[in-house]
Amino acid sequence: MSGTATREEAQARDAADPLARFRARFALPLGADGEPLIYLCGHSLGLLPLGARRLVGEELDDWAQLGVNGHEHARRPWIPYHENLTAGLAALTGAHPGEVVAMNSLTVNLHLMLASFYRPHGRRTRILMEAGAFSSDRHAVTSQIAWRGLDPATELIELAPRAGEALLRLEDIEAVLEQHGEQIALVLWPGVQFRTGQAFDLARNARSVRARGCVLGFDLAHSIGNVPIELHGSEADFAVWCSYKYLNGGPGAIGGCFVHQRHADAQPRDRHVGALPGARLAGWWGHEEPTRFLMEPQFLASAGATAWQISNPSVFAAAPLIASLRVFMEAGIGALRAKSVALTDYLAALLEPLAPHIEVITPHASAERGCQLSIRIRAGAARGRRVFEALGARGAVVDWRSPDIIRVAPVPLYNRFEDAWLFARALREVLAGVS
Ligand SMILES: Cc1ncc(COP(=O)(O)O)c(C=O)c1O
To answer: Is the bond into 313 cis (omega within 30 degrees of 0)?
Structure first.
């Protein structure tokens, strides 16, 4: 398409886009010429929702004016602050409101969930995850295995794509479960793979894992705010995510966690039962709010996933996310996904004529990807790196993932069809000029 597609056609698509007005609700990083950069990096750090400035400012004002009384009397009282995020997170993850909670950050939440849900017993001691998982996930898993006195070298099963392939096949996951299922205590799987952009069918994945009696957790770092998610219906045991990518919560934003209702229901409120899957590690913020400040030794769990909270929420890491989730709810998740599919399909089509020089390793079918496309330069990693740097010099903000991938994500909330067109032109010109 890029041979014939014109900038005017891209602009016409933007003019017809019912979500185009949301771009003005975000701060667009500018280049040296004062023009917006071609920002296609929402898979790494989403842009600042302008409404966040007011919300953070209000929290600072309330702190200045109320001091400690802000805990109860701020315009958004700080004690139940996480509740400001519940409805939006539940809507984006297909969870019941009681099943989600905003807390901590991703790897911390993963550790907490593994502490609760990785319960090796008898022959069931192993963890299955993908080879090439995000390093932090692997560090969390191997250290959890070792922390229990087991050996990660034997207890961790890592499933790699077939030789010569970049993507994982669900039937291969099912084959591993068939072969080793009775030894697998827990499966940790991504919703969208961070390097390839491959989106998995969570429901199918969950059916196969649960049929083998294994516990299932999802890392939704690259899924939430990007692809449709149905956590409750999938019956996954837990899920974790960060909020600084597609959720636009800002650097180090508060992360999130899902615990399926059946686990909250199974846990007695007034004691900890280590033998139950999902056994809580507790702190005072998991204690029910009405009696929390009596400071009594007896624990009494609050309802649902909030019982897994440990510490009081970080207000300044949460305020920008409130602003962003409001924008998501206003735009509508269905409309965002429809635009996302159209925009990424458009970018993929623009890149097709460059196929002699590049390989898009992300699946072609929109059901198997979110908005990210992962591009490999055929001439090798060294040239790929030079291409990436030349793109940056031309104002395209994308990123590089070792060993040889350029990740590009047109985000439906703030990217235009014209951004896709500008990127494709920049890549075409760079490929022609960079040896
Ligand atoms: C898939 C995945 N897992 C884990 C992390 C680590 O996140 P955090 O630093 O919030 O723990 C990231 C961060 O980008 C990620 O993409």
So the answer is: no
Nearest CA to ligand 1 atom 16: 221
Q: Is the pTM for the entire model greater than 0.90? A: yes
- Cα–Cα distance measured from residue 59 to residue 67, given in angstroms and rounded to the nearest whole number: 11
| Residue-wise DSSP of 153-210 | HHHEEEEPPPTT-SS--HHHHHHHHHHHGGGEEEEEEESB-TTT-BBP-HHHHHHHHH
Residue 137 and residue 327: Cα distance in Å, rounded?
30
Helix (H) or strand (E) holding 427: helix 417-433
- Which ligand 1 atom sits closest to the C-alpha of 44? 14
Distance between CA atoms of residues 271 and 304, nearest Å: 15
Question: Best substitution site from 105, 226, 240, 242 to test ligand 1's pocket, by max atoms within 8 Å of Cβ?
Answer: 242
**Region of poorest pLDDT, from 42-51, 247-256, 264-273, 350-359:** 264-273
Nearest to 229 by CA among 115, 328, 82, 110: 328
Query: For residue range 410-427, what is the model confidence (pLDDT) as tens digits?
Result: 999 999 999 999 999 999
Q: Does residue 130's CB lie within 6 angstroms of at least one atom of ligand 1?
A: no
Q: Which helix (H) or strand (E) holds 258?
A: strand 256-259
Say if residue 158's pLDDT is above 90.
yes
* Tokens read off for 282: 């507790």
